[in-house]
Amino acid sequence: MVDNCFLFSYHSIKICIAVIVVKRNSSAEYILTYLKANGGSYISGQDLSARLGISRAAVSKQVGKLRLAGYRISSATNRGYSLVGEPDRLDSKLLEAQNITCLTLTESTNREAKRLAEKGLPGFNCIAAEEQSEGRGRLGRDWFSPPGSGLWFSILLKPDTVTPAEAAPITLVTAAVIADYFNQTLKLPVKIKWPNDLLVNEKKLGGILTELKGEPDHIDYLIIGIGLNISQNTEDFPPGLRGKVTSLFIESGALQNRTSLLLQLRDRLFKAYQLFFQEGFKPFSAQWKKHSSTLGRKVTVRLAGQTVSGKAEDITEQGALILTDNNGAKKIINYGEII
Ligand code: BTN
Question: How many Å lie between the centroid of ligand 1 and the Cα of residue 85?
């Protein structure tokens, strides 16, 4: 499903300057020094609060800042905090050498990809960022994209052999390729919730935001934005997301190298898109169905202000959901969200 068709009028170009998240000599910096000096052992919140002369709530807030900056800090009741890992950074040199544009900070890689597309960057290009300040999800939602813990990237395509309608299933192709990769290589049971949510144990591991500029018979460009949670702990997510989202680390207990993961995924996706532009969704349909968590279930889909409930039977060759509603009528749903 393509999420957004847009026309451009950028009145201002914002220049993103990497901000130093943890200011020197801030309370967070002192906490980090103590945690490092403690060599991975726990140091209590009370101890930190006494040393810094701040409340325990303030300690917890500063620890939150350090986590946002990519430090892996474990917390345990009655024990306090321990530093378990330094920020992992994308290897921008390696990525650039492999033709991936790698930014330290951008508003949104989709937005960046649009700018580059307008400037003439050809298709089959990938733009990644360590951090997004205004990461966007489907349906106008925010996408939490701190540094050091996830993969936030967009793929730019400029196909001239398919129409926007024919390109619609590209999001499902993307979801199928990613789910298949994690199932095969990491033995992680990643499932796809129609159309394109990536879930593990019913929690969101990642999502895809596809945007398109074109006319009914022509595509100027397509941007496929992919967000994947990789190394976060539960407490690294904002409280409102906890319980709804997950990461590869939470699910597998293993830390993955984000740089090599990105390279692997980019290569697989490029190969898949080449096949998709030649043969359509058909070669990917079985793969998508195999990893689907939607088919065969009773679902409620929200679309354009209304909801439809029924059993999710199948998907069409365009990636639309075939649903038998509660009155036994067959419905084909091209766009919507399962709630
Ligand atoms: C969703 O499930 O709602 C889609 C999330 C898509 C997030 C990615 S992160 C990289 C790219 N840039 C964005 O601003 N959004 C997408």
Answer: 26
C-beta of 132 in contact with ligand 1 (< 6 A): yes
Which tens digits make up the pLDDT trace of 203-221? 999 999 999 999 999 999 9
Find where tokens 């993955």 sit: 256
Q: Ligand 1 centroid vs 158 CA: distance in angstroms?
A: 19
Higher per-residue pLDDT: 282 or 86: 282
- For residue 195, is the peptide bond before it cis, meaning its omega torsion is within 30 degrees of 0? yes
Report the nearest atom of ligand 1 relative to the CA of 206. Answer: 2
Question: Measured from the CA of 110, which atom of ligand 1 is nearest?
Answer: 12
Does ligand 1 come within 6 angstroms of the Cβ of 109?
A: yes
Q: What is the mean pLDDT of residues 46-70?
A: 90
What is the longest distance spanned by two Cα atoms in the chain?
67
CB 325 within 8 A of CB 309: yes
The residues that bridge with 82 in the sheet, in sequence order, are 74
Pull the structure tokens for residue 123.
């298709």
Tell me the C-alpha distance between 287 and 175, whole Å: 10
* CA distances to 151, 206, 309 from 289, in Å: 25, 18, 20
Its pTM stands at 0.83
Is 150's pLDDT higher than 90? yes
pLDDT on residue 256: 87
Bridging pattern class, strands 203-215 and 218-229? antiparallel
